[in-house]
Amino acid sequence: MKKYIYTIGLLLSVLLVSCKEEATTSEINLDPVAVTVKKVQLGTQAGNIQVSGKTQAVKSADLGTRMMGFVDKVLVKVGERVTKGQLLMIINSDDLKAKEAQVVAKIKAAEIAYKNATNDLKRFQNLFKKKSATQKELENIEAQFHLAKANYEAALEMKKEIKAQLSYTHILAPFNGVITSSRVKEGTLAHPGQPIISIEDQSTFEVLATVPENEITSIDKTKEVKLYVKSINRNYRGKLTELSASAKNSNGQYLVKVQVLDPDKNIRSGMFVNASIFSSEKRSADKIEVPVSAIVQKGQLKGIYTISQSGTAILRWLRLGEENNGQVEVLSGLSEGEQFIISSEGKLFNGVGITIK
């Protein structure tokens, strides 16, 4: 009986091992996965000039006042949208209003004196024609008339000056935009020429960057500039609008401005940008870039599938650099001439057979 049980157990063990081997053989003999590959190439090509810069609004203004005075009212908050001509802030103008009242009184007195001098001049001109007044008397009256007229005109000019000064106590929005900063509070003393409130139009943005002198002559102004804002992981198209003709005041770097052609609500002033400016010169491609879509990430590790000598897929871990326009720089892990897989029609894993399309 014991011999019979032992024989059955042995047969079951053989069957289990056979099934296991069959399953393993079935897993290894999967159909090859069709893939598209690309070869790492270094050579001369029409390259791009890589520069960095910052975004800024095309239209912005730092507003201040020409008059010293305490801030009476701040009518807007940072982040608030305003329209052109909207009152933003009021500076105390009690002193100016007192001067204005004095000038108004002076205008009235000067106007009366001017009218009296005009009437006196007409009367003496008639008397002179009738030989009832001397030439000297007429000249004296004419002098009094011109003096009264000059005093009246000067008083009117003083009123205009006061009006202009009063206008500086009312800070108005020069265009439609958004308040980006307010440097004073109610009761703060505002000084002439000091920026106290800032506004910018966030519908149009540009990138301010610098280009080294050895690159400046190769820039092709007719080509679009590729922009990448890393903080929001977005790509934009740009147009070169300004190119400095001198680096005298910028330490050998030439300033360039690139208008963002397709801005959206995500972009803000002050964001760092990587700009790729088209160069008309042929240059060596001294770095390796691969599509971001081909990168495989497992935890903190990132890699890409390459092809082994036996024609199977093998995952190669990489050290990566900056991303730009859907490409990522490979700092180590790939060499010139090696092939890597950029897409596949099935699931890839280490050791799976592949066929190249």
TrEMBL record:
PROSITE patterns on file: PROKAR_LIPOPROTEIN (PS51257)
Residue ranges constituting the CzcB-like barrel-sandwich hybrid domain according to the UniProt record: 62-199
Swiss-Prot/TrEMBL keywords: Coiled coil, Signal
Membrane-spanning residues: none
Family: Belongs to the membrane fusion protein (MFP) (TC 8.A.1) family.
NCBIfam families: RND_mfp (TIGR01730)
UniProt-recorded name of the protein: Efflux RND transporter periplasmic adaptor subunit
Taxonomic source organism: Pseudotenacibaculum haliotis
Lineage: Bacteria, Pseudomonadati, Bacteroidota, Flavobacteriia, Flavobacteriales
